[in-house]
Amino acid sequence: DAGVTQSPTHLIKTRGQQVTLRCSPKSGHDTVSWYQQALGQGPQFIFQYYEEEERQRGNFPDRFSGHQFPNYSSELNVNALLLGDSALYLCASSWDVNTGELFFGEGSRLTVL
Amino acid sequence: GNSVTQMEGPVTLSEEAFLTINCTYTATGYPSLFWYVQYPGEGLQLLLKATKADDKGSNKGFEATYRKETTSFHLEKGSVQVSDSAVYFCALMNRDDKIIFGKGTRLHILP
B97, A43: Cβ pair inside 8 Å? Predict the structure, then answer.
């Protein structure tokens, strides 16, 4: 049983560009959450998707957007990249958000030059 | 708002030593509390949790007790092993189902 998979694992962009990160949730999970983890910090909640709708959102600007597909996979899009967007982006899936048990992927490390 | 504060790392211990990693929280209402762990080269994974006051979560020899009076959820283990070397994150979840993480504590266990 595959866990949460993310792609790409590493990527480098320049300021002003746009990036799309992808996530496939663990089998049987229907909820996907995205987190940003800066170096030496804990993960910061970006947003959560359930039934193809954004269900919750953290304190991130509109440059951060997402999508969930009918097969529950998800994308995170970031427009007009800033140097400060350099971070590890984590995807987490769950089958019941009320449990608080998230299953994380290994992340996509984004470097903005 | 909701927040989690945990002790700064890195924490370095010898094998078989006693471990405590402190965690305190600020939240409205009665959040659920968690410890997540990130082993080298792996994704974050849930280590243990507690959903109400005085609950004790436990797993793999680790324990943490939900203390409402001190708003704390300290992680303890009686005898650590080299394989416990990892980054440990304290976290909370309130009624909005958002999970808020602390900054993490890196633990090094020396053989």
Answer: no
User: Using one digit for the tens of pLDDT, what is the confidence trace for B23-36?
Assistant: 999 998 889 999 99
* Cis-peptide, bond into residue A70, ω within 30° of zero: no
Q: Which of B88, B81, B101 is nearest to B36 (CA)?
A: B88
Residue A71, C-beta contacts closer than 8 angstroms, at least 6 positions apart:
none
Taking CA–CA distances from A38, the nearest residue in chain B reads B103
pLDDT band for position A1 (cuts 50, 70, 90) = low
Instruction: Identify the sign of the CA torsion B63, B66, B67, B73.
Output: positive
Q: Write the CA distances from A5 to A1, A60, A94, A104, B9, integer angstroms.
A: 11, 23, 13, 8, 29
* pLDDT band, residue A77 (cuts 50/70/90): very high
Closest Cβ opposite residue A100 in set B34, B41, B45: B34
Higher-scoring residue by pLDDT: B108, A1: B108
Nearest of B69, B91, B65 to residue B4 by alpha carbon: B91
Residue A2 has pLDDT above 80, yes or no: no
